[in-house]
Amino acid sequence: SNNNNHNNNNNQSSTRFASTKNHSTPGMNSLSPYLNFDPRVLNPRGSQFILPEGQKEKRGRLELMFFTIGGSVIAGSMIGSVSGLYRGMTETRDLIGSVRTSSIINYVARQGATTSSAMGSIALIYSLIGTGVSWIRGVDDELNTVASGGLTGLLYRSTAGLKSALRGSLYGVAASSVYVMLTSKERLQTYM
């Protein structure tokens, strides 16, 4: 009788999922019947990610902050490493063998870490200021992006003096304005 109960439970379970379209992957059928279904069942809106009812599709600044910082650190590491490789190759021409190789590796590691740290710090400052500005204004728009860029440049270069801080702010406003013009063309046209 225990065996009959077990068979009845399997039959009920298979009829429960019979209306769900199966998407089989070779070799995966034996893992679990719960992994073998159409994902649109869970997400009828067809969105890329599952959101609670009533939540907007766009990710907020706080969520994007982690991507921005991580991407900046990785990009900084790559840019710095290439720059260090070039610098190491040009400045160690008179060296030979393992001494040259070791010197080039030192240039790559030092420049990669320095650039990575600088870009990560700038991204962290930008993200925190952007999140704060959005929270204070209660709106997440292009003005927040440009203001965050300017304030980031100002704060990042503030230890080098007033002139350097203002120049950093100008660079921040310019870079964030270019970013806004490239990513928000349609929205900017509504203001004109």
Features:
mainly alpha; transmembrane helix; protein transmembrane transporter activity; membrane; transmembrane
Please explain how this structure is put together.
The structure is a single chain. With 192 residues, the protein is an all-alpha fold. The chain has a domain at 60-136. Helix content is 68%, strand content 0%. The chain has six helices and no strands. The protein has helices at 2-16, 61-91, 97-137, 142-156, 162-183, 185-191. Helix 4 packs antiparallel against helix 5. The longest helix has 41 residues, at 97-137. The chain starts with a helix and ends with a helix. 19% of the residues are buried.
Strand content: under 5%
Sheet/helix structural class? mainly alpha
**Record field, number of beta strands:** 0
**End-to-end C-alpha gap:** 77 Å
Q: Which blocks of ≥5 consecutive residues have pLDDT under 50? A: 9-17
Computed CA radius of gyration, to the nearest angstrom: 27 Å
Sketch the topology as an H/E string, one letter per element.
Answer: HHHHHH
Biggest sheet overview = none
Taking all residues together, what is the mean pLDDT?
79
Shape summary: flat
Percent range of helical residues: 55-70%
Helix-strand blueprint:
Layout: H1 2-16, H2 61-91, H3 97-137, H4 142-156, H5 162-183, H6 185-191
Helix pairs in contact: 2-3, 3-4, 4-5
Brief characterization of the structure:
It is a multi-pass membrane protein. The chain is mainly α.
